[in-house]
Amino acid sequence: MTKKSSENNLIKEIMVSVSFEGDISLQTLEERIEKSPLIMDTFKKTQDAYSTSLKFDPVKTKSKTAKVGVILESGNKNKVILQVKTGIISYHMLDHYVSSDQFAKLFQEYWSEIVSLENIVPKELTIRYINFIPVEQGENLSDVINLKIEHPYEMAESEFYTSKFQKNGKPVSIVFAYDGLKERRGVYFDHSIKQMFNEKEKISNLADIINELRPIKNDIFFSILTEKTKNKYFNGTS
Predict the structure, then answer these.
(1) Digit-coded pLDDT (tens) for 11-20
(2) What is the C-alpha separation between 17 and 82, in angstroms, rounded?
(3) Can you give the pTM of this predicted structure?
(4) In what order do the strands lie in the sheet with 120-134?
(5) Are the C-beta atoms of residues 155 and 179 closer than 8 Å to each other?
């Protein structure tokens, strides 16, 4: 299924994250970023990333904050964020759409610049899409999506629904949020798919994994859209 127009872009965010194990320090990660023309020409460092741990005590709860990574952002109109932390790297593309192949290729390039696959063992890859589907004046929620939430009250100004299940052996999580305020009436649909790796697997190309998850993502996304929505924003049906 293809888009009719880039103006009819329902994408709010596309994200991929990979958690990993390996003997690589935060200092080494930062050095590799600074020495990478590919990354430094695309991003600029905006802030450090921190983690806070709490130690509960009957008298006084103590907290400890430590730097765990860096956050980089692109300076162009189409915002892109690269978060590099000890144990996890994530890549976020906001408010614009690129093909799955291109998105996977870009992440693979940044991943390869930062880590050495000979020393790093990927544990889990998560691909996540957040879409916003407008509900126009005169339309009901049922005109836009097939997902129906029932409760003993009248239609609320906002609704929230979450579900976790397995599809094709992959853990899937979906979050549905309806915002009924007039100035931004519509549906947020957040869905993520995980790929777990075992220690014996030799993962040479994460882009291939991302592309393998794409059909699952498409099945989930288009199954919640009504024919009216598909015809409005896409050419034909899935």
Answers:
(1) 999 999 999 9
(2) 10
(3) 0.84
(4) 43-55, 62-74, 80-85, 88-94, 11-22, 120-134, 186-196, 170-179, 158-167
(5) no
